Amino acid sequence: MVEVSLREIRNDLGWRLRRCRAERARARSKATFIGITGSSGKSTATSLLGHILAGQGRVHTQVLANTLKALVRTLYKRMKRAGKVDYVVFEAGAFEPGSIRGMAEILKPDVAVVTMIRLEHVTQFRTLEAVAREKKALVDALSPGGLAILNADDPHVLEMASGARGRVATFGQSGAADYRVTDVHAAYPDLLGFSLRWHGGAMDIRTPFPGEHFWLPAAAAIATALELGVPPEKVAARLASFEPLPNRCKVQTVDGGPQFLVDTAKAPWHSIDIAMDMMRKASAARKRIVLGQISDYVGSSRKYGTAYGIARYIADQVIYTGDNAHRSRANQADHDSGRFLELRTPKEVSDHIKETAVPGELILLKSSSNLHLERIALAWAHDVRCWIPACGKKEGCQDCGLYEVPFEEHKSFLANRRLERRRRRFGWLLGGLSLMRRA
Questions:
Q1: What is the predicted pLDDT for the residue at 122?
Q2: Per residue in 338-352, pLDDT tens?
Q3: pTM check: above 0.85
Q4: What is the CATH architecture assignment of 250-405?
Q5: How far apart are CA 126 and CA 100, in angstroms?
Q6: What is the Cα–Cα distance from 46 to 64, expressed in whole angstroms?
Q7: Of the candidates 183, 153, 191, which has an alpha carbon nearest to the alpha carbon of residue 281?
Q8: Of the candidates 247, 255, 205, which has an alpha carbon nearest to the alpha carbon of residue 226?
Q9: What are the boundaries of each domain within the chain?
């Protein structure tokens, strides 16, 4: 017999109540709800689309926190605080079979956007077809009058048009795309530009992104905005003021020091060659690549050796860090010459770069989020004191905000901060009680 604790019952009832409130809030809202999913590019597409639509009306953008719990919290709590909104743009992430379907049933999107299908969360999905089925749940949830924005270059995404209950618009480099992308170019410090053409319109797009691969999420966001009636000139104006997300190929330049391409939010195997190609096309006085944890691959860890074989012909120095730093298969000559360097912790990498940096060099920081290699770039502008190799937090150091506090002091620091907030909030009451006692 399975015993269920009172706490478990209370938590379950609380969750059911929050979900009911979220469903009720969705039913009452007159906003246009937009769900964005895909194996890559969804966070950038979500944040960019939210920024563009903010020029048209009030927008609630939910990016990075892309789970069912985050959606429920957004609908029943945060939207209530925000008041009336015209658009809700939500990033939907797939972590296991059924994860998107649960979100889609609550979100009931008016617009569903799918960027691409790649093999992600490999232990859960196993095949591309399984990933595609999961992402398609967002398109399946569209109302008959809804709109699907699909990548015409990805056959797994394009197949989602079949059976879609709403209207379909496609984007991509394919000649059959409704919004066709051509003339893609980026070679840092030259930032991404491309041409976009559709029936009755054309734009020359200029973006703040350093790599060519960003054309896909940018085109997805722009095509969606145009379909929603945003004028092309307003799209261009909003693009000019967009600030890319931290840790997703975000450029950080140090006056008189190095330039960093910080790409530390994720590192699935299918994206490694994209990051390497970005570095290959870039121009800089010197190039270095720091590689940490690679994720989402099938087979042996020989992928680290393959990655090094590519990186050594692009960069003047390649640095491997983390638990797999020893898997580079770099030859002895590369070890001896310093072309390859194995440093086990982010702190060691940071110290080495501080000692050896030259002005104007370009350094790519590429890793899954667990190593938080963004600290290496942050250390040039902040007194980073949290150098635990892997803290277990999923959010980036910028969102955590505790990188200037040693990790072992995080709990006490947060407790003191909560206490100080309570004192500021209720201090007037405590002061009044004290005066009453004296009287």
A1: 54
A2: 999 999 999 999 999
A3: yes
A4: Alpha-Beta Complex (3.90)
A5: 17
A6: 9
A7: 191
A8: 205
A9: 17-240, 250-405
